[in-house]
Amino acid sequence: MNQQAHPKDPLHGITLQQIVEALVAHYGWERLAEKININCFKSNPSIKSSLTFLRKQLWAREQVERLYVFMVTKQAKKAL
User: Fold this and answer.
1) What are the pLDDT digits (tens) for 11-54?
2) Do the Cβ atoms of 19 and 64 come closer than 8 Å?
3) Over the stretch 9-20, which tens digit does the pLDDT of each residue have?
4) What is the model's pTM?
5) What are the domain boundaries of the chain?
6) How many CB atoms lie within 10 A of CB 24?
7) Which of 3, 5, 21, 48 gets the most CB atoms within 10 Å of its CB?
8) Torsion-angle region of 46 (φ positive above 0: left; ψ -120 to 50: alpha; else: beta)
9) How would you class 14 by CB atoms within 10 Å of its CB: exposed for 0-12, middle for 13-18, buried for 19 or more?
C-alpha cells in the first residue's frame, strides 16, 4: 500500500483515545459537553466511559471526529 495514501486525512494514524484526550485538553469536559451534547461528556465524564460509548455509537463518534478535525484545522491556520 502506498505510504502517502492519506496525506491530507487528519484522522489517519490517530486513535479514538488520542482524539478524546486532545479534545478534553483543548476544551475541557464542560465546554466539550456544550459542543457535543452527549451524556458521557456531561455526567461523571472520563476517558474510559467516553471511549466505551463512542465505540458503540457511530453517530457520536462522527461528531467527535468532526470536532477534532475542526480543532486541528483551526490550530494549523493559527500557526501560520
Assistant:
1) 889 999 999 999 999 999 999 999 999 999 999 999 999 999 99
2) yes
3) 888 899 999 999
4) 0.86
5) 16-79
6) 17
7) 21
8) beta
9) middle
Q: Is the backbone of residue 72 left (phi > 0), alpha (psi -120 to 50) or beta?
A: alpha
Residue in the block written with cell 463512542? 54
Tell which residue, 68, 58, 75, has the closest CA to residue 18. 68
CATH label, 16-79, candidates 1.10.720.30, 3.10.20.880, 3.40.50.300, 3.40.190.10: 1.10.720.30
Q: CB–CB of 59/29 below 8 Å?
A: no
**Cα 10–Cα 28–Cα 59 angle in degrees, nearest 5:** 55
